[in-house]
Design a protein that fits this description.
This protein has one domain: Glutaredoxin, CATH 3.40.30. Helices cover 37% and strands 25% of the residues. It has 4 helices and 5 strands, in the order E-H-E-H-E-H-E-E-H. The longest helix has 16 residues. This is Thioredoxin.
Length: 106
């Protein structure tokens, strides 16, 4: 399963009401570090299929959701479990570090 594009309109349904933990990647097209972690998140999405959903939300096209969560810098990753934020991190990281962060939070 690859990453899922989410909008402000679909955020609650895809993230807060998900029956599995969700990693939300707040990103933008112009953000180099965001593009850098994209392939790792795609791979992790496949590796965690059925256990964790990984979604991406473009902050330029969807300003409401990042504002509600206080996102100030991107890439910003938030891990939701049972509709609540259980962990978050800002900035790019290698795939192994992202996998370790996800595994430690679920």
């Amino acid at each position: 399963m690859s990453t899922v594009a989410v909008t402000d309109a679909t955020f609650d349904a895809e993230v807060r009401k998900s029956d599995v933990p969700v990693v939300v990647d707040f990103w933008a097209e112009w953000c180099g570090p965001c593009r850098q972690i994209g392939p790792a998140l795609e791979e992790l999405s496949n590796e965690y299929a059925g256990k964790v959903k990984i979604v991406k939300i473009n902050v330029d096209e969807n300003p409401e959701s990042p504002a509600l969560l206080g996102v100030r810098g991107i890439p910003a990753l938030f891990l939701f479990k049972d509709g609540q934020v259980v962990s978050n991190k800002v900035g790019a990281a290698p795939k192994a570090a992202l996998a370790s962060w996800i595994a430690g939070a679920i």
